[in-house]
Amino acid sequence: MSLISFLKKLWASVKSLFDSLPTEYQSAIHLGVIVAENIKKAVDSPTADILTAIIPGDVDDKIKTVLRQQLPQLLAELKLADNCGELTEPEAIANCAIQTLQQLEGDIKSAFLHNIAILVAQIAADGKLTWSDGVYLLEWYYKNKFEPAE
């Protein structure tokens, strides 16, 4: 079996797994990708209300509230706000993390955005999405559902 044939079978298996997930998990994965992409856009062109810009407007209000509370903490735990002193306001923490991301390049920046996408999906799935499932499902979703739609 060639490498290309193997990879096609692997992606087909991941697609089958994604399609069999409950709708709320599929939505959580979608949200993780969208939030990471919005962070990437904010890094490129900062906005006034960073949390509003990052969290999509069509997200359920309950999930939006949880993300507004937990996203700054998540960014701080990823050490993206370490050089900003004793910030406590969620908006300030998010802005500081964006400034840190602006200083990163290439694979390092991509790794942080990938981790953020997985962690946001876990939050949106109420902790029911494992890290390992999130890794390959988000990668598959990004390559096969999100990128082609752009």
Describe what this molecule looks like in 3D.
With 150 residues, the chain is an all-alpha fold. It has one domain (3-149). The protein is 76% helix and 0% strand. The protein has seven helices and no strands. Helix 6 crosses helix 7 (131-149).
Helix and strand arrangement:
Elements: H1 3-20, H2 23-44, H3 50-54, H4 61-77, H5 90-103, H6 106-124, H7 131-149
Provide the number of structural domains.
1
Q: What share of residues are in beta strands?
A: under 5%
The shape is globular
Helical element count?
7
**DSSP summary, beta strand count:** 0
Instruction: Indicate the radius of gyration in whole angstroms.
Output: 16 Å
What is the mean predicted local confidence, pLDDT?
86
Largest sheet: none
Distance between the ends: 33 Å
Unreliable spans are: none
Order of helices and strands: HHHHHHH
Helix- and strand-based class?
A: mainly alpha
Residue share in helices?
A: over 70%
